[in-house]
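Researcher: Here's a chain I'd like modeled. Treat it as a single chain, no partners, no ligands.
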Amino acid sequence: MNERIRMINEYESGEYSVSELAEQYEVSRKTIYKWIERFEASGWEGLKNQSRAPRMHPNAVDAQIQCQLLRLKADKPLWGAPKLRHKLLGLIGPERCPAESTISEILRRHGLSSRRGRARRAVPSEQPLAHCQQANQVWCADFKGWFRTGNGHKCIPLTISDAHSRYLLCCQGLGAETGFVSVKPLFIQTFREHGLPQAIRTDNGPPFASLGLGGLSPLAVWWVRLGIGLERIEPGAPQQNGRHERMHRTLKEATAQPPARNLSAQQELFDYFRQEYNEERPHEALGQETPASVYESSPKPYPERLPEPRGYPEDWERRWVRKGGQIKWQGRDIPLSKALWGQELGLKPVGDGQWEVYFETLRLGTFDERKSRIEPCRRLASSGSVESSQRSE
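Model: Modeled as a single isolated chain. Structure tokens:
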């Protein structure tokens, strides 16, 4: 720096030419001219060393594309880089669309994202829905955790989704009443719109299950009569319904932080979320496709009248369940479950005084007529038909 100042002073004095200064300082005339131009443009500050970094990076994202990305983020604040990139691909094409890592960096520079902490080591786990390979094979149903709206009223959303496509079939906020009478009309509406699934997966709480024989509740009995299989997760194992639980987390972030002023306004948020979740939001497990592009309605329509019971083989005993939840056996009342009131059971002979008890295709337990009681199955079992179950044995 001292030599540059001295060189400029000598040039300004007029005693030396550019060629003489180049020879004296052992640099080229081009270098002398460079420092003279910098001094004339910026004064002594111009003689300081400047960054050699390129002013324009050849692979820099165009400012217009960055603005487009930031507008998308403002419109979809809960979307991360993978979903935003998928949306951007459709707008500007793969040639101009930046990589996912670049989008993450742009979001971080604008304070719209943060670096993740060190990832935890993944814990090996089962895949409880690995058997679900097509739409309507398994539906998942549950209540999202309750919260209060702005006016203090309780809101408990009932959610139903298709496990394969992640399509959100129903998202309806309920008040304090969540029993059979309240939820049955919502299932009827969903069945009418989308048809019947092969099975429904739930937890073991009401109204989906009970503490009675087979864990049957009035809602579960109705499903069985419609030909729907029952899948229940183990107590304290919500990860067995993990796809549905993950949707609940997104639902909470989008609609309940903060909640709406009342139940009506909250339902408007649920309806908007359902439309966006199904038709706009790409899903990573679907290869960034939307649930609506994967889901198809069930070919099995909802019957407006309950189908007739399937019937049992001729060599089986049959009993109708009375109002108190009992059947009559050799003059004695055998308690079962009030949820089965009005249903016909089949009793298959399996030994001396031993009978397997079936409701439709469900094996509920084993009846010992000498003890006058039924030993429940440890886990609810279902087969395609009673006849096929009998043949397999």
